[in-house]
Amino acid sequence: MRRGTLFAYPEEITAKSVQKKHNPKRRAGPPVEPGKSLPGKATKEERFLHKVMAKMFSTVGKVYTPEETGKPDWYLTSSWTADQEQVFKEYLVREIMRDFGMSRRHAVKEAGWFLLLYGWQAENASKHPTSASGDSERQVPDEK
To answer: What is the pLDDT of residues 27-52, one digit of tens each?
Structure first.
């Protein structure tokens, strides 16, 4: 887990670790509904993370299971619009403030880290590549 933040890097959260705490006898965990947390002895941060992940998955029309995030590059499987991301970020800030008692400023910073680490890719990002120098647009006159 990164120091000073609530959220671990995606590699630190595996389906195996979640499955052990959820129910060690089951192979696949049940889908988690938006607004619901994992039962059992999961830590406050783990319960919060799974509640938020369920909401994030439902935002793009998917059902969240802990095993889904154990796959490599799972966060690249969907994309969302800037509006969907903004609505989710507002929800996330409210939930962080409510569950952890943080100030709005700190909650906005945590939400930014969460979206950087776990957020879906933006729909427009892959469609409009930009060049750093802008040289592709410049035309060079023919020399004769």
So the answer is: 555 555 555 555 567 788 888 988 99
